[in-house]
Amino acid sequence: MDAASAAKDRVDRALALLERRLLDLKSRAAAASGRQPDDDLFAPQPSSETDRIRIYELEAAGRDAAEVLARAADAIRDSLAEREAR
Predict the structure, then answer these.
(1) CA-closest candidate to residue 39, choices 54, 53, 18, 49
(2) Which end of the chain has the lower number of beta carbons within 10 A, N or C?
């Protein structure tokens, strides 16, 4: 497997992990509140502690995802730079 393929695989795994984490957070929030979660980013401010916790967890997952994707992008850039240097 060449470096570009390996980097692509890392990005794919990171995105799959992010999707699983977000789905898990949504399902836990729905179970805690007894209702289906609202995905509207422009929804009014949270009205309960459960909503505040859910928002905090989703924001943390978003920050984690951004970090993982930044590392994956760096790996892809490094791989492409190595490839061009050959």
Answers:
(1) 54
(2) C
